[in-house]
């Protein structure tokens, strides 16, 4: 009752956004809502079953008509995760009112609290939510919310005995999607978690995070194609899980495994991967994710020494995505960076340890549809003639340079570095597929390392003090590479620079000289950095 009262108050707060629209609450609307929520529950049951889980519902889906809105009470929901593990969600309550647009509903919802986590032995944890407010516009064509806003405050995770294991100050989530004239949807979802603290039951170690922000962008999304493709993938996954369960049972019983079934399972796995790729290609044109973490810290006690250890990072940034899935050529991005690395106690090799790092890769004009078709054809040919699998793979590999060159595929590495107060190692460049080059690519890459001589000196000192031979071997391997760079690079002020070129003749040049000659010492070695 309290949940329903709180939800009604939350819903009233959302009503001004659609107060201008006079709506009729009737049996037809109730029937449409029942179909929406029934379909949602059925889809979740299928998805969980395909992954070896289970969605258990108790009670009925109730749609009640109030004077100006519909009150929906979903069945009590429990998510089973196998071997007795489960999450009890309980009753989820939703209030809904139709907007002045067809197929749209303004909804507010309330998540039951606490959420209960169980193992086969009993309760493990409970997740408590202090305050919550959530609602948005549900679109029947999208099969989801076209816009949504929620805020959750004062959350914590407790053990069954009442020990606080995690606290979370706030979660804010916002989504906004809109269709084009062809009912293809584009938009983004934004999430922010702040004030996260996790500790173990003995209060010996902890993880603290100031904030986590996520931005997920979607472009050209087709909900009809997605639903169809999703059903196909889930059906294949469910079939595979049944066969895997049978094989696991046979292994447990000591029964001799049927090799033909194992081979058949491998083939089904390949087909499912292909279906998943088809889902991406057909259902959307763009998908990207940007994840930002601020003020990350880990603290604990060393079991051997009993001393406190700590590691912290000021910022962590991750970005990955693909654009142009429905076009002949797609662009793929990948970036990862961190800064402000600090370790306490300070390690012996702190002058070599990077305090900041960044890598940023872009793969442009990738003929992804053509490559996937090539993979499909290779798998089909291998299935018909397994003995020729190696030859088929070789033919595909030989045709790859031509395909990439025709598409104008390029790989770009920009603004990438590894650095601290002692040194800065930077690398930038671009490689392009080419049919005229003997190795199938042309391009250049520049490596710029400051204070190289000091780095070499520090490694030598570290090796002289190290007693662990495996660490000495790794240090020696790194030292050999740096000494080679010192030999072939050119000195520019405080930096040693090596510009590598792949030319049309298949040669690899470094600073205009043939790399083989530079490595053999046939050219004048570069002066050491001062």
Notes on the protein architecture:
32% of the residues lie in helices and 42% in strands. It is of the alpha+beta class and 530 residues long. Strand 10 and strand 11 form a beta hairpin. It is globular, with a radius of gyration of 29 Å. It starts with a helix and ends in a 10-residue tail after the last helix.
State the gist of this model:
This protein has 530 residues and is of the alpha+beta class. Helices cover 32% and strands 42% of the residues.
Secondary-structure blueprint:
Blueprint: H1 2-14, H2 27-50, E1 54-58, E2 62-65, E3 70-73, E4 76-80, E5 86-90, E6 93-98, E7 104-110, E8 115-119, E9 122-139, E10 144-159, E11 164-179, E12 185-199, E13 206-221, H3 223-253, H4 259-283, E14 286-301, E15 308-323, E16 330-339, E17 342-344, E18 356-366, H5 368-384, H6 389-407, E19 410-419, E20 424-433, E21 441-450, H7 452-465, H8 469-488, E22 490-492, E23 495-502, E24 508-510, E25 513-514, H9 515-520
Antiparallel strand pairs: 1-4, 2-3, 3-6, 4-5, 5-8, 6-7, 7-9, 8-9, 9-10, 10-11, 11-12, 12-13, 13-14, 14-15, 15-16, 15-17, 16-18, 18-19, 19-20, 20-21, 21-23, 22-23, 23-24, 24-25
Key attributes of the depicted protein:
530 residues; alpha+beta; 25-stranded antiparallel β-sheet; 9 helices; disordered N terminus; disordered C terminus
